[in-house]
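Message: I would love a firmer grasp of how sequence relates to backbone shape in proteins. Thank you; the sequence and its tokens follow:
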Amino acid sequence: MEIIERYSTPNDLMTLVILLVLLLLVIAKQLYPYRFEDFIALFSSGKYMVIKSREHKTLFGFNVLMLIVHMLIASIFIFVLYRAFIDPEIQETGVLFLRIFTAYSFLILLKVTVEKIIGNIFDLDEPIENYLFQKHSYRNFISLGLFIVCIFLVYSGTPSDWVFYLTSALLAAALVFSYVNIISKNQGFITSNLFYFILYLCALEIAPYIILYKLIIRT
């Protein structure tokens, strides 16, 4: 069987991004030690959601740091997928990563802005604020697990296809689990607005990522 080398480009850029993520995590832990500890125990304890959701406005700095971490980690994963399956011999890795990070960050920030505007228009500011806090808390937490996988993928040389498929399956399962938890915590609100919630999922949770995928594969 002929051995195919997936990655022909150095990982200097990814090393710098990984170090940046680690630096941001250290800063978050130093500036917000108790909140960081509660956040790390998010899936094993409901303390972060129960207590912090009532004071999410005071968590602005911590949330910003973790959102940046999430966007960097997601961009690393997308970059690794692109380099593995679309263009293994790409040379302009810096340009590609910058495009991915810019596109993904713009998508996330645009979604948050649109969601807040919708909440304001329909006088649902508080439920939307709580929903967004819960959703981004789960996604930021899941991205920490993905970060470990990304480090392995970056430095493993030629990871097998099954590693990517397994990672994607586990990522999808974690996201579904988080949505189930969010829905259970907001069951009354979602049930009374079920049609709009389904419309929201299609318009703001599915379609934007399809658009992002189309943009990336055309780079």
